[in-house]
Design brief:
Elements lengths: L2 H4 L28 E6 L5 H9 L2 H17 L14 E7 L5 E5 L6 E7 H6 L5 H17 L9 H14 L19 H15 L3 H10 L5 H9 L3 H12 L8
Parallel strand pairs: 1-2, 2-4
Antiparallel strand pairs: 3-4
């Protein structure tokens, strides 16, 4: 039986565009959109059918790129941030272990590839398919546009920023919890909720400023946070833990 026989016509379900939640500045300028491509390595895989019937690939990628750029760079006219020259993003759907990963291409690092597991997509219940696909893609697209302090940034901060964008887009999955045990840089939602606390304490542009500082040179933990917000990260995380004690799992 072919894929066409198994599936109904796809219904476009766009990713919510959160750019309206962000101050865009005074001008109408928009970011130059990268070339977006889709590559499905196995159309007979049941995960391919689920993907194609759950989302409109063109819309979901375009909206997600817009959300990432607005949250990390605000606008092209913002002189406080510098958007990287990412020229294209190719979404590769294939059978593989894990969930997803992002890499540069053999051409050069301005061209990115997001590899997304068809097995993982197939494993998701129908009620979670659309939000989970959009959430994972939003996370991975951050990796296409963020800085990493010349590869010296802690991995937990890199992944935390990606999940912070997912959190700000309203795409946090039901299993996410705001944990406070362990270090601040455990990554993913653990660090994302800490970053969310920092934005409430120091302003909505805090993650934007973190990302820009990661563009400017190597990460040095003893000075990075002092220069950024005037406090060592250990003190900031201690304050966050104290404030979280009587909070539920919602946003701080």
């Amino acid at each position: 039986m072919t894929l066409r026989d198994q599936t109904a016509a796809p219904t476009p379900i766009p990713l919510p565009d959160r750019s309206k939640d962000v101050d865009h500045g005074s001008g109408p300028a928009s970011f130059k959109a990268p070339k977006l491509r889709l590559k499905i390595q196995d159309l007979d895989h049941p995960g391919a059918a689920k993907f194609l019937t759950s989302v409109n690939a063109a819309t979901i990628l375009s909206n997600a790129v817009n959300n990432v750029l607005r949250l990390l760079y605000k606008s092209p006219s913002d002189k406080n941030t510098t958007c990287p020259p990412t020229r294209s993003v190719t979404l590769v759907l294939k059978s593989m272990d894990g969930v997803a990963f992002t890499t540069g291409t053999a051409l050069d690092d301005d061209h990115k590839e997001i590899h997304f597991s068809l097995d993982y997509i197939h494993s998701q219940p129908s009620s979670r398919l659309t939000p989970e696909i959009t959430g994972v893609l939003s996370h991975e697209l951050v990796h296409c546009f963020q800085y990493d302090a010349e590869h010296s940034c802690p991995g937990g901060l890199i992944e935390g920023i990606a999940d912070w964008v997912r959190l700000k887009c309203g795409l946090s999955p039901p299993h996410w919890k705001r944990g406070t045990e362990g270090d601040w840089n455990q990554g993913y939602e653990h660090t994302a909720y800490f970053l969310n606390y920092l934005t409430e304490r120091f302003g909505e542009d805090t993650v934007r400023r973190i990302n820009e500082k990661l563009r400017q040179g190597e990460y040095k933990g003893e000075t990075f946070w002092l220069e950024l917000v005037g406090h060592p990260v250990e003190k900031l995380y201690g304050d966050y833990v104290e404030k979280s004690k009587d909070k539920d799992d919602g946003d701080l």
